[in-house]
Design brief:
about 400 residues, Spore Coat Polysaccharide Biosynthesis Protein SpsA, Chain A, 2 domains, 7-stranded mixed beta sheet, 7 strands, about 55% helix, binds guanosine-5'-diphosphate-alpha-D-mannose, binds manganese (II) ion, DPM1-like, GtrA_DPMS_TM, membrane, transmembrane
Amino acid sequence: MQKIVIVMPSYNEADNITRMIEELFIKEFPQIKDAEMHLLVVDDNSPDGTGKIVKEKMEKHENLHLLTGQKQGLGWAYIRGFKYAMDKLGADAVMEMDADFQHPPRFVKDMVKAYSDGADYVIGSRYIKGGSVPRQWALSRKAISYFGNLFIRLVLVKPKLHDLTTGFRLMKVKGVLDKIDLDNLMEPTRFAYKVDLLYQCIKNAKKTVEVPLEFAPRTKEQSKFNPKEMISTFKVAIILGIRDKKRFIKFGTVGFTGYIINAVALELFSGTAIASTFASFFTVLKGTVLGFIAEPSAWAAGIAAELAIINNFTFNNIWTFKAEKIKGFFNIVRKFLEFNLAALGSVVIQFVVIGLMVVLFGDTRLIRQLGILVSLPLVLSFNYTMYNLFIWKTWKLPWRK
Ligand code: GDD
Ligand code: MN
């Protein structure tokens, strides 16, 4: 049986917490047959006595837990809660949920069902069919929530997900939450931690699923969300968005230096003794189809290309993929050979593209040079994909562990 711990931070929720505990333990949990449900309230010593109420209720409900501490903000409350759920309660999955009934308890079972059906990350979404934001919300509030979300979707390039700021989510511990460095989440004192956590969970998860959530209006009191929280949320999204593109920019820069080295080395080596020495071993081939092997410039081109490959491998390894740096002599040799194999792919792409263009439009310098330009996006995407999938392995294939 899977153990699922709902981590519920509370600050001055005395008006809500009793009913919340009752609804979960008496109405909702008994309906969930395929998981053992626990509730962990993380109360930051609420002056209104929320923690005391939970403590009393714990006598009645065995699966109710309380973690208290100093108020350090929402992110830290969750981080403490997650750690406790994983280390002390042995959770298989944890949920994020608010105590103020904005996440109606009846939606818990839908989240658990998605998990039981194989999702390792479940997002309670207000912006898919069946989900909603409170009808009472003013148009301006609805617009801020909707466009804020849209903005984050664009910045993070997550068009397939619809709610990136929701506070109602479920994550599997093994492979998703336990892979995250919780102590170094961005903006842990704020609501913005949610975007960083979401981003990392999506990366780790093999199957992310959105489940409709009808976000309810707040019962009493004021929301703790404010413009400051909103700005920091956008900030986190932008930093995460750029961080990923940064790798691509570095990759492009290294590729460009490789290109320069290739071009310069070709001119430097053609006409040198090295190139003509290599070529001279093959003078017998002159006049045959393999005659190019006897050409010093062909050897110069080969040397130049290999120098560019060495340059690209080295700088991608120590710069573009710094965090995944390949170390150790034998590893480096093996990866370098694989890298050369990948480079062969670009040769094939250019061979086919330029070959086809020459056949279609005639063999002129213009067409050949255009051919290089047309191949470029293909070569770049091909290389970038190869590096991320096979060389430095920053992307994982869904069917591979
Ligand atoms: N322990 C602890 N410490 N709990 C806190 C703190 C804190 O510093 N700040 C807030 N909480 C608790 C509240 O008691 C409530 O249970 C929950 O965290 C959410 O706080 P709200 O103040 O109700 O947040 P909200 O309604 O504005 O924001 C909700 O919706 C947003 C999306 O519109 C949250 O679910 C956000 O996570 C979500 O992004
Ligand atoms: Mn709320």
